[in-house]
Design a protein that fits this description.
5 strands
Length: 112
């Protein structure tokens, strides 16, 4: 991932969660992230540990009978405050609470 993409993405200095398909999708596009969309009920987690200042976790819920359960969420945690293990815990906690989770397997290097 080039630093150029990361340089244009500024986030709050604290932890945050953005909800809203258009806003989150715009951030995904700017970072070069895409989901394989489907109409089957599923939840996908895509961790993004490459941002310079924040750990980012994108969550996509789709194909649910209740339209209010569908959509995109971005959760961000500042690297200056949260160690890699804290980000991994966030992913485990999300996975434990979701129906039909699909998550990328990854290991964050402590020098990230």
């Amino acid at each position: 991932m080039s630093n150029e993409k990361n340089a244009v993405m500024k986030f709050p200095p604290t932890g945050f969660a953005f909800m809203g398909n258009n806003d989150v999708r715009e951030i995904m596009v700017r970072l070069g992230i895409s989901f394989p969309w489907s109409n089957e009920p599923s939840t996908r987690l895509v961790p993004y540990p490459y941002h310079e200042t924040h750990w980012l976790l994108f969550v996509s819920c789709e194909g649910c009978d209740d339209e209010n359960e569908n959509g995109l969420v971005l959760t961000g945690m500042p690297k200056a405050i949260v160690p890699p293990e804290g980000f991994q815990k966030l992913i485990r906690d999300y996975t434990a609470t979701l129906k039909n989770p699909r998550s990328s397997t990854f290991k964050i290097r402590s020098d990230s």
